[in-house]
Amino acid sequence: MNSAGDPNSNFNVTWEFDISVGFQHLVRFHFCDIVSKALNQLYFNVYLDSSAVVNDLDLSTLSFNVLGAPYYLDLVTSISTSNKMRVSVGPYTANGAYPNAILNGLEIMKLNNSVAA
Question: Highest taxon of the source (predicted)?
């Protein structure tokens, strides 16, 4: 998210993906804070289909107080009833942080729901 230098920006960056109806999906978010100049500057929220899955995410606290360290988050969805999945990141500004968010990579894997014989 690049808020173009506007500290009053308040929007999410959203992607929409086609998925298979009737399946659960493993969603793996990849993060790496490659934009901050110091620790504890980048706070943001992560959403999956309009539901907040992580609020106030601070990568520097999850990566042992190191900038530029990779971190991933795995989530398994409910069985899908829609053929679309929306993933969003957006600013968390309740702590006075500059509005920003980052998502470096995303994997969406359909989980097999068959029973082995």
Answer: Eukaryota
d(CA 45, CA 23): 25
β partners of residue 93: none
Residues in CB range of 32: below 8 A, 6 or more apart: 59, 68, 69, 70, 71, 102, 104
Query: What is the chain's pLDDT, residue by residue, as a tens digit (117 residues)?
Result: 555 555 556 668 899 999 999 999 999 999 999 888 889 888 899 999 989 999 999 998 888 888 899 999 999 999 999 999 999 999 887 766 666 889 999 999 999 866 554
Alpha helices in 9-89 (DSSP H): 59-62
Q: Characterize 42-76 residue by residue with b for buried, 16 or more Cβ atoms within 10 angstroms of its Cβ, and e for exposed.
A: bbbbbbbeeeebeeebbbbeebeeebeeeeeeeee
DSSP 35: S
The torsion angles phi and psi of 111, rounded to 5 degrees, stand at -90, 135
